[in-house]
Amino acid sequence: MPHSDGAATSMETSLIAPSKEQEAPEKDAGWSGGGPGGDEFGGGGNGWNSGGGAAPADVALTGVWVAMMAIVMFFAALTSVWVILRGSANHWTPTDLPLIVYLNSVLLLASSLTLEFSRGSLTAGMPRRFLLWLYLTLGFGLLFIAGQLAAWRELASRGIYLATDPSSSFFYLLTAAHGLHLVGGIAALIAVAFQARKIAWGIRRRTLLDATALYWHFMYGLWVYILLLLVLKV
Predict the structure, then answer these.
(1) What residues make up the domain containing 19?
(2) CA distance linking residue 90 with residue 233, whole number of Å
(3) What value, to the nearest 5°, has the Cα angle with vertex 231 and ends 228 and 146?
(4) Looking at residue 7, what is its pLDDT?
(5) Of residues 200, 232, 223, 191, the one with CA closest to residue 71
(6) Number of domains in the chain
(7) pLDDT tens digits for 24-49?
(8) Which of 48, 145, 174, 193 has most Cβ atoms within 10 angstroms of its Cβ?
(9) H or E stretch at 97
(10) What is the pTM of this model?
(11) CA dihedral defined by 149, 153, 156, 160, rounded to 10 degrees?
(12) What confidence score (pLDDT) does residue 55 get?
């Protein structure tokens, strides 16, 4: 039966050899696995090569929170020593704060407010105001550091130094420790300032700005705590 042999051969050929449509692989719709929602960064719509890991914003904010917890523990230890020495000292002479310390407090409060104005302007789509408020924040921060140096010089002119008495020692220690940590915030603000125009026009994400703002507000709150500790003479 030749016709049956031909039909069997044709059936085997169709089962073994795939069609040209089956051999052609499917092409990706996106640039690098992003599909229709991908963008130029090769991610899945978020611009960050999304591979299931933690987002950069989460990592940055977590790092800031860890740093703040360490700083809180450090100043809590200093406060404990302060209270113990204050209670055990027979003659504790409180250090009279220079008036410029209160002016510095106003400057730091103003910097915290201007930083929020800057973030609000960025959210509202006003890049020029965002830049203006950001630069003002940086300026207030630098003025605060300069004011702290002036406060130390004023105390030195009165003959009050680090080793004069326990009260003056803790004034210098607390304000110096806060100032050093604030310099870290100023460095972060400078980094934001260098990227400010790219952030304003959407080229860079605002992750660094938000993380810096969180740290900066924390430093203001820490300064209020230190000031109350010094003024109330706990």
Answers:
(1) 1-53
(2) 15
(3) 85
(4) 45
(5) 223
(6) 2
(7) 444 333 333 333 333 332 333 333 33
(8) 174
(9) none
(10) 0.75
(11) -50
(12) 61
Shared-domain flag, residues 68 and 30: no
Q: What is the pLDDT of residue 233?
A: 59
Residues 116 and 167 occupy one common structural domain: yes
In this structure, the chain runs to a length of 234
Instruction: Identify whether residues 187 and 73 lie together within a single domain.
Output: yes
CA distance 71 to 85: 21
User: Which residue reads 């105390």 in tokens?
Assistant: 155
CB-based contacts of 148: which residues, under 8 Å, 6+ apart?
101, 104, 175, 179
220: left (phi over 0), alpha (psi -120 to 50) or beta: alpha
Task: Tell me the residue type at 46.
Answer: N
3-state secondary structure 202-226: CCCCCHHHHHHHHHHHHHHHHHHHH
User: Do 196 and 228 fall into the same domain?
Assistant: yes
Residue 125: which CATH number? 1.20.120.80
Taking the C-alpha atoms of residue 157 and residue 126, their distance in angstroms, rounded to an integer, is: 47
Domain stops at, among 20, 35, 53? 53
Q: How far apart are CA 99 and CA 17, in angstroms?
A: 92
Which residues of the chain fall short of a pLDDT of 50? 1-4, 6-53, 234
Do 114 and 224 share a structural domain? yes
Contact 24, 16 (CB under 8 A): no
Q: Both tokens of residue 117?
A: 């104005």
Residues 214 and 227 in one domain: yes
- In this structure, are residues 60 and 212 in contact, taking their beta carbons and an 8 Å threshold? no
pLDDT of residue 69: 97
Ramachandran sector of residue 149 (left: φ over 0; alpha: ψ -120 to 50; beta: rest):
alpha
Residues 43 and 67 grouped into a single domain = no
